[in-house]
């Protein structure tokens, strides 16, 4: 699979799709493409949409798209499919509805399978966002199911994090909030026509806090009918105007970059060590020495570090 | 905490207990003790006892001890407590029963908490076994709940692996067996007074296979009454006579040593890299370059590998 990065930069959708497949399935070849397009990234406004399963994230994304289009924006959507078979079915319907936009040349939708390897997914997601960015998407919506670590990971990908919850989640929300408060720039209470929406809103408003000059926003929506979606759109525009090219986003970006460099360091170093050791009989001779009790395992490892890797 | 390794080698129980605590809680200091006693290890016969929760492993261990004592053997027991609160309670009763041996100077019992970090536990278990070995234990029984990876890990610790199952586990056994067949040297069907023990025995006998000249043994016990425990004891003696100081065990030991060296390599290298990078401003300056799109994250990691670690 050969991908021409200059075609991606010209916005060629087919080439973009092929590059995304490469990033997902062939990390080494994918990295080469990323290297080629990287200097052209950083233009898009990346919106992360997360929250528990069933809160209507896909429907919300679906309803947001027309607002961005009305501003002549090119929209990219990265939908991260949870591998869970339970929530998978429910989401599928919304994903199919998203397809109504998929024939639209100003909207590019791609879903990715999460295979449980969160680190790997997060890395690939970042690169998919970069490809869409380089291909000219102005807005990139990254939709992911927020359970545990995932909602933290989205901070490393998105400029703004929207956490979607709904009434009748009850105490779950309270439990969740402790982890989510830290990542949410915007709270959406979706399905606000159900149950105790106002109580939840009140609670969120009471406890929201200000970070880097931005006070967490709280928006009430009924994505199914479209109610409140325009308010969310306005909040997102507002956030972009407040923050784009500002110091706070810069810091988020630098700390994300640091994490990503460290992740690559670990992957690359492990590879190099495997290579160096494979070409070398020292490991098996030392294992034999350990079996003979001539050297203990930790000292054997230290020997390899000294002799094979040349470190002191 | 200062530990005198010469006292361990003389069989001092208090010093042994302190060294075990060190290995569990202070890996770096623990490694130093292991280094000092390592050449005196490899004498003990290490028996791994694994299997699903509730199959009566602790009771079985409890019943086996007198047989070893009758042969004038010093017995060590390492009981790995599962952190699961569900099975934890049930096991506790059996553990208390094990205490009846704990005042006995020829029996040394130690339980270890599994904290979910299987790699770390397996490493510590190996070292605890070594300490007991160096302190003069002839027989070391390692009891661990076999779920998923744990039963594979025990192969790296034990000379012989005993898998304990029971009737009425039904299909679970079939599912389990696929993973367990590879590690079991001896199958015990405990609680054989219940249900369909004979059917299970028949199944096990039909599918057992021969490895390195040893045909998987199948033993039927009722640990609660002691029934069949002598048969298990004889099988274990038989295994020891067949294998101790034989080629097959040597291979198992060498491959275990190789894995352990590689584990230490990874730990030590990660530490060294963290140290080297902490003393160096290169990471943050590169993160800043990534944020400016002057370099992509993978190339930044490659730069660190080249510049800071001196690798090509």
How would you describe what is shown here?
2 copies of one chain form a homodimer. With 312 residues, chain A is α/β, with parallel strands linked by helices. Helices cover 54% and strands 14% of the residues of chain A. The first copy, chain A, has helices spanning 5-9, 13-25, 27-37, 57-70, 85-98, 118-134, 150-153, 171-180, 197-207, 229-243, 247-278, 282-291, 297-307, and strands at residues 45-50, 75-81, 107-113, 139-143, 160-165, 186-189, 210-211, 214-215, 217-220. Chain A has a 7-stranded parallel beta sheet with strand order 3-2-4-1-5-6-9, sandwiched between helices. In chain A, strand 7 and strand 8 (214-215) form a beta hairpin. The longest helix of chain A has 32 residues, at 247-278. At the A-B interface, helix 3, helix 11, helix 12 and helix 13 of A face helix 3, helix 11, helix 12 and helix 13 of B.
Topology:
The structure is a homodimer of 312-residue chains.
Chain A (H helix, E strand, L loop, with lengths): L4 H5 L3 H13 L1 H11 L7 E6 L6 H14 L4 E7 L3 H14 L8 E7 L4 H17 L4 E5 L6 H4 L6 E6 L5 H10 L5 E4 L7 H11 L2 E2 L2 E2 L1 E4 L8 H15 L3 H32 L3 H10 L5 H11 L5
Parallel strand pairs in A: 1-4, 1-5, 2-3, 2-4, 5-6, 6-9
Antiparallel strand pairs in A: 7-8
What is the SS-derived class of chain A?
alpha/beta
What proportion strand of chain A?
5-15%
Tell me about the largest β-sheet of chain A.
Answer: 7 strands, parallel
Most extensive interface: A-B, 47 and 47 residues
Please give the alpha-carbon distance between the first and last residues of chain A: 42 Å
Radius of gyration of chain A: 23 Å
Helix content range of the residues of chain A, please? 40-55%
Overall pLDDT of chain A, averaged?
Answer: 83
Q: What is the helix tally of chain A?
A: 13
Give the ordered list of helices and strands of chain A: HHHEHEHEHEHEHEHEEEHHHH
| Uncertain stretches of chain A | 83-92
Largest beta sheet: strand ordering of chain A: 3-2-4-1-5-6-9
CA-based shape of chain A: globular
Oligomer: homodimer
